[in-house]
């Protein structure tokens, strides 16, 4: 390619020299030679897997915006292009779970795991589905499978969810361990801090609960349930000023939240 370029350049220089000589003998101006036309190589069509990935990413975006019908349409296109594309079935599971079509959701997650048994995102989503369908103990194995993969980029998500599910299963010791592992994976994680504050509060360790609440309040927008817990912690410790601070934040940030509406009758058990 470089030889062709040099020879073409030399030819243009020679042509320009000839035109310059002719111009000296004639008053008629000459037009400069147009630049050589560059012909782009023909574009190769994207592979079916890449196109399936694009449709799956679109479906995920529609899912997050609550547009489930369009998400299903995009997923249909993805699996038509690449029937073995596991991430598409993972998102299928999420969409069907949101729609309350549990049998289809379970079938989709199982298909996704069959195609990609080591995918941490699929294990995490399948685990959360199990946890929210009264299969908490079974869900913990899926969260463990997710974090076992050293390439998993967000192990704190699976560990926090494992902690929540362990609490739902009535095992606060396991929940405590999961939340602390989440803080190791992501120091300062407010959801893990909230879980630990909740355990300490329920066990009457109010000073420890207050300490964990500091991590909750590091979040840009602490959740209403976190603010309510903070209020109850301070009420138990007898710090009226700190208690009112949580009440004020709850009213200002979440005026329509159930936690705010229940302030008048909140007993802080």
Please outline the helices and strands:
Blueprint: H1 2-25, H2 48-64, H3 68-81, H4 86-99, H5 102-115, H6 120-131, H7 136-148, H8 155-168, H9 172-185, H10 190-202, H11 206-216, H12 224-237, H13 240-253, H14 258-261
How much beta, percentage-wise? Answer: under 5%
What's the architecture of one domain, going by CATH? Alpha Horseshoe
Q: Gyration radius, to the nearest Å?
A: 31 Å
User: Mind telling me the CATH class of one domain?
Assistant: Mainly Alpha
- Helix % is over 70%
The main β sheet shows up as: none
Overall number of strands: 0
Using the coordinates shown, work out and report the CATH topology of one domain. Answer: Serine Threonine Protein Phosphatase 5, Tetratricopeptide repeat
Separation of termini? 80 Å
Which regions have little confidence, pLDDT < 50, spanning 5+ residues? 1-29
Approximate shape: elongated
Mean pLDDT: 88
- SSE-based structural type: mainly alpha
Our count of helices gives 14
**In the CATH hierarchy, what is the superfamily of one domain?**
Tetratricopeptide repeat domain
Order of helices and strands: HHHHHHHHHHHHHH
Descriptive report:
With about 270 residues, the chain is mainly alpha-helical. The chain has a domain at about 190-269: Serine Threonine Protein Phosphatase 5, Tetratricopeptide repeat (Alpha Horseshoe). Helix content is about 70%, strand content about 0%. It has helices at about 1-25, 50-65, 70-80, 85-100, 100-115, 120-130, 135-150, 155-170, 170-185, 190-200, 205-215, 225-235, 240-255, 260. Helix 6 (about 120-130) runs antiparallel to helix 7 and helix 12 runs antiparallel to helix 13. Mean pLDDT is about 90; it is low at about 1-30.
């Amino acid at each position: 390619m470089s030889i062709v370029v040099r020879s073409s350049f030399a030819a243009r220089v020679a042509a320009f020299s000839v035109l310059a000589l002719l111009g000296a003998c004639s008053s008629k101006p000459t037009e400069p030679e147009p630049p050589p036309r560059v012909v782009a190589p023909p574009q190769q069509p994207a592979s079916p897997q890449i196109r399936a990935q694009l449709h799956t990413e679109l479906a995920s975006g529609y899912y997050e915006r609550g547009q489930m019908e369009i998400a299903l349409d995009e997923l249909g296109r993805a699996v038509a292009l690449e029937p073995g594309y596991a991430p598409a079935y993972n998102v299928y599971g999420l969409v069907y779970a949101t729609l309350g079509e549990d049998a289809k959701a379970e079938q989709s997650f199982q298909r996704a795991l069959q195609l990609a048994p080591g995918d941490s995102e699929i294990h995490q989503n399948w685990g959360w589905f199990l946890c929210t369908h009264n299969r908490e103990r079974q869900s913990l194995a899926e969260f463990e499978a997710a974090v076992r993969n050293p390439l998993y980029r967000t192990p704190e998500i699976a560990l926090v969810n494992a902690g929540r599910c362990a609490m739902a299963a009535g095992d606060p010791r396991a929940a405590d361990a999961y939340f602390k592992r989440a803080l190791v994976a992501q120091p300062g994680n407010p959801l893990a801090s909230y879980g630990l504050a909740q355990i300490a509060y329920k066990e009457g360790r109010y000073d420890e609960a207050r300490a964990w609440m500091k991590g909750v309040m590091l979040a840009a927008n602490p959740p209403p349930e976190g603010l309510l817990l903070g209020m109850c912690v301070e009420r138990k410790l007898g710090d009226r000023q700190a208690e009112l601070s949580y009440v004020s934040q709850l009213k200002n940030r979440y005026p329509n939240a159930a936690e705010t509406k229940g302030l008048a009758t909140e007993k802080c058990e």
